[in-house]
Amino acid sequence: MWDFINGYPSHNVVEIYIRCYEKQPSVIQGTGAGNDTTAAGVLADILDIQDLFP
């Protein structure tokens, strides 16, 4: 769904809804990190989780 907002499929978009501004959320968007960086981050997270279970 987000791919169609600005026509950039690699963008990340987050909408934050709060009571004061229910009808107009705060939007944070930017370019994604890319495949290699995302894969490295996921692998690092998996290795960190492994340390929780000795």
UniProtKB/TrEMBL annotation:
| Record GO terms (molecular function) | homoserine dehydrogenase activity
The cross-references to InterPro entries, in alphabetical order and at most eight, read:
Bifunc_Aspkin/hSer_DH (IPR011147), HDH_cat (IPR001342)
Q: Which residues form the signal peptide?
A: none
Keyword Oxidoreductase: yes or no? yes
GO BP, one annotated term? aspartate family amino acid biosynthetic process
Keywords, ordered alphabetically? NADP, Oxidoreductase
Q: Which Pfam families match?
A: Homoserine_dh
All copies of the Homoserine dehydrogenase catalytic domain together span: 10-47
Q: What is this protein called?
A: Homoserine dehydrogenase family protein
* Provenance organism: Solanum tuberosum
